[in-house]
């Protein structure tokens, strides 16, 4: 079989099979690399306050590597654009988040960031949004999904959906929101009344695995091995055919040796004529 495999055409076929296998292995490596999502930043990094305009831009989706980051932003509150988010718990008590649009200095197209200014037990406990130059320090979080139900009266919404708030406020906005840990206006803390600060800790860092990509990666490895196996199978078949051809050749020679005398010629005799 080695003699058959060393024939030029089968050497060329082997090189072609190895090239295909290499491509399949590279595809498998790519599938493995995409199977695991990018690791989120360390908790220590997310607690370092960074300017919002350096971390995130409006009009794009908030990635997992950007979420939970502590950010700071300068601008001003748009007090008329305030909503309440229902079904929020604080130490086991049900209440509302107070969310106000914050016009971020340096944001393109005058985009606003929804800021959770605090929690209240009743809508009457909401303190007016402060006016003036403000600085907000808080945690950047992904938006919630919209709930398919009509908004309640008095500006109460069932979820904090940035896409829904863009329509309610009729202004461009960020696809995220910030829970304010600290708010200062003209260098001083504003009056908050009965509102309580909403503190959100960094979420546990988990790396999700896409098992479908893992399955595809294994498939590519199988395909790579099959391409080499197919070459070996073809060489084995060619070798077997060559052996069968040789057997037929020798069988024909033996048949020729067993044939009788040619017609018209005397048959050989073992006795000497007297």
UniProtKB/TrEMBL annotation:
Residues 244-260 have a biased composition (Acidic residues). Pfam families: SURF1. The lineage of its organism: Bacteria, Bacillati, Actinomycetota, Actinomycetes, Micrococcales. It is a multi-pass membrane protein. Belongs to the SURF1 family. Keywords: Cell membrane, Membrane, Transmembrane, Transmembrane helix. The keyword Transmembrane helix applies. It comes from the Bacteria. The chain crosses the membrane at residues 211-232. Residues 244-274 are annotated as: Disordered. InterPro entries: Surf1/Shy1. It is found in: Cell membrane. GO terms for cellular component: plasma membrane. This is SURF1-like protein. The keyword Cell membrane applies.
């Amino acid at each position: 079989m080695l003699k058959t495999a060393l024939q030029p055409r089968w050497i060329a076929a082997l090189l072609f099979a190895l090239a295909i296998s290499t491509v399949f292995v590279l595809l498998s490596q790519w599938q493995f690399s995409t199977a695991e999502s990018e690791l989120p930043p360390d908790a220590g990094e997310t607690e370092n306050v960074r300017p919002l305009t350096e971390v995130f831009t409006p009009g794009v989706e908030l990635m997992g590597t950007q979420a939970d980051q502590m950010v700071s932003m300068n601008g001003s509150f748009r007090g008329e654009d305030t909503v309440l988010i229902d079904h929020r718990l604080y130490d086991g008590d049900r209440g509302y988040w107070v969310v106000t649009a914050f016009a971020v200095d340096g944001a393109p197209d005058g985009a606003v960031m929804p800021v959770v200014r605090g929690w209240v037990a009743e809508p009457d406990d909401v303190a007016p949004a402060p006016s003036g130059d403000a600085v907000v320090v808080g945690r950047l979080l992904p938006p919630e999904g919209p709930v398919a139900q009509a908004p309640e009266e008095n500006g109460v919404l069932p979820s904090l959906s940035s896409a829904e708030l863009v329509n309610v406020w009729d202004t461009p906005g960020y696809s995220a929101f910030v829970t304010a840990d600290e708010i200062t206006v003209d260098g001083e803390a504003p009056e908050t009344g009965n509102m309580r600060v909403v503190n959100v800790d960094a979420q546990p860092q988990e790396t999700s695995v896409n098992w479908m990509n893992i399955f595809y990666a294994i498939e590519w490895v199988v395909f790579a091995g099959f391409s080499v196996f197919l070459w070996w199978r073809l060489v084995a078949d060619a070798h077997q055919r060559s052996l069968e051809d040789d057997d037929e050749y020798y069988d024909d020679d033996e048949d020729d040796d067993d044939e009788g005398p040619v017609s018209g010629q005397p048959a050989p005799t073992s006795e000497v004529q007297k």
